Amino acid sequence: MRDIRACIFDLDGVIVDTASHHFVAWRRLADELGVPFSSEDNEALKGVSRVDSLEYILNKGGLVLDPATKVRLMDRKNAHYLELAGKTSPADALPGVVELIDSLKEQGLKVALGSSSKNAEMILTRLNLIDRFDALVDGNHITLSKPDPEVFISGAKALDIAPEHCLVFEDAQSGIDAANAGGFPVIGIGSAEALTKAAAVIPGFGDYTWDSICALL
Ligand code: BG6
Ligand code: MG
């Protein structure tokens, strides 16, 4: 049995279903640019920063734009996203996640956020969950996007716990790759067909207690 002392949660698609809002917002921007955007493209962009996601879409469309236009497009995508995610409320937390976080805290484990999103603090505040986190690392604090492990390494450092003792929860392949690159055990949230190289993949937290998650490691 692994000695897990902390859990690092991704946000979008793990704590709340804002991953679908990112998808709709990117597709809207891609439509505006005349670039096709499929659900496979969305899968590839999960966990990827705003700037790297824009570069992916521009590259797909063969578009070369100046830096000021890129900033304008990122702002436009974020406005589309906020139209959808700005109404997030505590009822939007995914099934079982609040119960899991509470049971981790009761058992003395630390809890951190490891998200690529610059909107993470706003979303956690709207979910009324921000006070439950011992450390928050998000898109405002990192220079390298997942699959680079920076976001999780910073989270482990903030908790002062070695990566091997921090379990990561991720819905994105880029996040699973980031966790593996940093030496973190990782559980995928989603479908085992879409997510590879995690210690285990579960569809969500709804049917799982902390003990049943530990049994998967
Ligand atoms: C990640 C999402 O959590 O954050 C990506 O999976 C998103 O889809 C990225 O692009 C950056 O988010 P934001 O809120 O900073 O644009
Ligand atoms: Mg995610």
Structural account:
The chain has 217 residues and is of the alpha/beta class. It has two domains: 6-17 and 89-214, HAD superfamily/HAD-like (Rossmann fold, 3-Layer(aba) Sandwich), CATH 3.40.50.1000; 19-85, Putative phosphatase, domain 2 (DNA polymerase, domain 1, Orthogonal Bundle). 43% of the residues lie in helices and 11% in strands. The chain has helices at 19-33, 39-45, 50-60, 67-85, 97-106, 120-126, 150-159, 173-182, 210-214; strands at residues 6-9, 110-114, 135-137, 166-170, 186-189, 200-202. Strands 3-2-1-4-5-6 form a six-stranded parallel beta sheet. Helix 8 links the parallel strand 4 and strand 5. Helix 1 packs across helix 4 (67-85). The longest helix has 19 residues, at 67-85. It is globular and about 50 Å long. The N and C termini lie close together (7 Å). Bound molecules: 6-O-phosphono-beta-D-glucopyranose and magnesium ion. 6-O-phosphono-beta-D-glucopyranose binds at residues 11-12, 19, 22, 45-50, 53, 78, 115-119, 139, 172.
Break the fold down into its secondary structure elements and pairings:
Layout: E1 6-9, H1 19-33, H2 39-45, H3 50-60, H4 67-85, H5 97-106, E2 110-114, H6 120-126, E3 135-137, H7 150-159, E4 166-170, H8 173-182, E5 186-189, E6 200-202, H9 210-214
Helix pairs in contact: 1-4
